[in-house]
Amino acid sequence: MNWQAIAFDWNQVRAFLATAEEGSLSAAARALGQTQPTLSRQVAALEETLGVTLFERAGRAMSLTTAGMDLLEHVRVMGEAATRVSLVASGQSQEVKGKVVITATAALATYHLPPILKKIREAAPQIQLDIITSNEVQDLTQREADISIRHARPTQPDLIAKLLGETVAHLYASKEYLHHLGPIETLKDVEQADFVGFDQNERLLGELAGFGLHLSLNNFRINTPSGTAMRQLVSEGMGIGILTKDIGLTDPGLHAILPDQFAIPVPVWLVTHRELHTSRRIRVVYDILAEELARSPFL
Length: 299
Known about the structure:
Layout: H1 10-22, H2 25-32, H3 36-50, E1 55-58, E2 61-64, H4 66-92, E3 98-104, H5 106-111, H6 113-123, E4 127-133, E5 147-150, E6 159-174, H7 175-181, E7 195-197, H8 201-210, E8 220-223, H9 227-235, E9 241-244, H10 245-248, E10 254-257, E11 264-273, H11 280-294
Parallel strand pairs: 3-4, 3-5, 7-8
Antiparallel strand pairs: 1-2, 5-11, 6-9, 6-10, 6-11
């Protein structure tokens, strides 16, 4: 290897990559936890070292030059390699302390995780727990999270997944809204009703049709990606919501609609990266989550 040819600073390369990926210096600075002037100096220093202009600057707007686009392809490979190095290093850590990032839906994080997190803190008081509440599948391979609790089986080969169990989702509405609808004997009786939807209703329509419920986008008058917000909106009589039975049972004012005719199975998977699974702090958190969630009454 020609060591003399490697004349740049990785921090400068990382600043360039973050700016290119995030779209601006301010966004990149937030992502890296740095100040914008510091990041700007690092990008400028890389340009000077390489002798090329990487960004066209017009006020606050920045766009990649041809040289910048050519470099970006190679720098992305470097970023992925750096991430793998970080994963391996984290996986070799045998200390039961440090930060563990867990991602889960807002509903699960609100109604089921708190008592489990308390047990984790009792078993490993030096572990810092960060909880990301989102319906989006966090990318564990890119260290967006260490452990994920999700409802879909992961497909990436570098991930370890354990099926903890399965719950079921029904249609729920408040007593007030059910009175407004009138008698309901079949799913067809709710096909003109208002629904509280998610943020991907187009895809949801096909899935619901597979379970015998035929709706259109006009049914979804209010939409939210948050399960806890949906529960509250349904409780307030804003329409029908699709909630797992454990969430429906948190409010005695919610009533399941034709649960024998409409029931969507919802698996619960616990996922981590295979490298992180060798880390004691990750393993401790993963094992407690697996044990407690698997025997939870909501599964």
